[in-house]
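Subgroup meeting minutes
Present: P.N., E.W., G.H.
Scribe: E.W.

1. P.N. recapped why we're keeping a running log of single-chain structure predictions: easier to compare across weeks, and new members can see raw inputs and outputs side by side.
2. G.H. added today's entry (138 aa).
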Amino acid sequence: MTPIPEEVLRAAARAVEAVYPQEGCGLILQGPDGPVVLPVANVSPTPLRHFELAPGELLGALRRAGHRLGAIFHSHPEGSAALSAQDRLAAAPEGILLFPGVLQVVFAVEAGRARRFAVHRWSHHRWVTEEEGVLPLR
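Output recorded in log:
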């Protein structure tokens, strides 16, 4: 069972599908009323191949009263749900995790549809895949 509820994964998948063929990205916030999916603009200069969260939106989300960052999600258009070397480096430059305790969720998007997902967790100085699945769930 994924640590992220199925309906939240489905909402995040819809968010990345909406910006296909670009890499979609966003945040899953944990709040007093449950998880909240927050799509975030991809400001990468190469959005078809990379993602970069809009800094202002990221900071705004982190300041939301009563919420904490639970996961960062993004897509790999026509790719896999594995973390790429660039994803791993961006999340933990020089092996220093930028957001401790925050999961990374990657969606493999094929022909505009999120088909697979993987949930990754930082453990003992490396990323481990905690869950992999096929969409749509149920």
